[in-house]
TrEMBL record:
GO terms (BP aspect): proteolysis
Identification of the protein by name: Fibrinolytic enzyme isozyme C
Keywords assigned by UniProt, alphabetized: Disulfide bond, Membrane, Transmembrane, Transmembrane helix
Lineage of producing organism: Eukaryota, Metazoa, Spiralia, Lophotrochozoa, Mollusca
Domain Peptidase S1, first and last residues per copy: 53-287
GO molecular function: serine-type endopeptidase activity
Record bears the keyword Transmembrane helix: yes
Organism, scientific name: Biomphalaria pfeifferi (Bloodfluke planorb)
Length: 287
């Protein structure tokens, strides 16, 4: 595919890479990303994004037991606004800018959920939030572009693990899923993104959506976003897009108009999935 065609098709999404990041948990330290995250800071506000899964499919029960729905109290009712990923029984990873002007006592999460509306399934649990911690480089709210757009939600009570509530396995080395050089067809194992954001028909789905995708070569990401060249080369960012060999009208499978903290999971044939990234920015031209 020509460089001109690549530049014309800027429906890409950037994910914050989850690798070698020190996340302080209860009596444990898990290696996750590249920057230390201070658990001393409680979030009062950081910002909200919506997710749009384009050309996705309905997920099945038990398929993504780590997926979390984050809700806020708004005008007397609970409203979904961001995704997240369960990493321990009491910790959820998400994007920091999901919480602009929003305190922890106005947030709750649902784990084990497949359908946002209607009767709950027997596995899901609604859990209130005790603290929300943002990366130490972010103050009250995200100002401009911050490559450390990540937050950790601490649950008020531990999630009870079951068939549809399980922590995600974190990739020890995310580079196994990336390419360094440009290829017409990338050969690394495919990945999957999930969420309840608006579909290509501008409809908010009831059922969790999934879409297969691949991580783009680093040099293509750098060409698309030269301002973030260092963030890509330093391993902070990944960007994704569907395979080039798909028909043109189906070349964009993925989030659009913001990802809102949803997970990027990778594994051979979408099996044995590992957490590789958290959605932090989407190119708005995909709309």
């Amino acid at each position: 595919m020509s460089e001109q065609k690549l530049n014309a098709k800027k429906e890409k999404v950037i994910f914050l890479k989850i690798e070698m990041f020190w996340l302080i948990l209860t009596n444990i330290c898990i290696v996750l990303n590249v920057i230390p995250l201070s658990t001393e800071q409680e979030i009062d506000s950081v910002g909200k994004l919506r997710k749009r899964i384009m050309l996705g499919q309905n997920a099945q029960l038990f398929e993504f037991p780590f997926q979390v729905a984050v809700q806020e109290r708004l005008s007397g009712r609970w409203v979904f606004f961001c995704g997240g990923v369960l990493v321990t029984e009491k910790k959820v990873l998400t994007a920091a800018d999901c919480f602009d002007h929003l305190t922890a006592n106005k947030v709750r999460v649902i784990v084990g959920v497949l359908n946002l509306y209607g009767p709950p399934n027997q596995y899901q649990q609604t859990i209130y939030v005790s603290n929300i911690h943002k990366h130490e480089s972010i103050e009250d709210e995200l100002q401009g572009w911050n490559p450390n757009n990540i937050a950790v939600i601490t649950l008020a009570t531990a999630a009870k693990l079951n068939l549809n509530v399980q922590p995600a396995k974190i990739a020890e080395n995310a580079t196994q899923y990336t390419e360094t050089n440009t290829h017409e067809k990338w050969m690394k194992p495919p990945c999957v993104i999930t969420g309840w954001g608006y579909t290509e028909n501008s409809i908010l789905p009831n059922t969790l959506q999934k879409a297969s995708t691949r991580i783009m070569p680093i040099n293509i990401c750098q060409n698309m976003w030269p301002s973030f060249k260092d963030a890509f080369s330093d391993g902070l960012f990944l960007c994704i897009k569907s395979d080039f060999d798909l028909p043109e009208e189906h070349q964009y499978n993925g989030p659009c108009y913001g990802d809102g903290g949803g997970p990027l999971m990778c594994g051979p044939n979408n099996q044995n999935l590992q957490l590789v990234g958290i959605g932090c920015f989407v190119e708005p031209s995909c709309t």
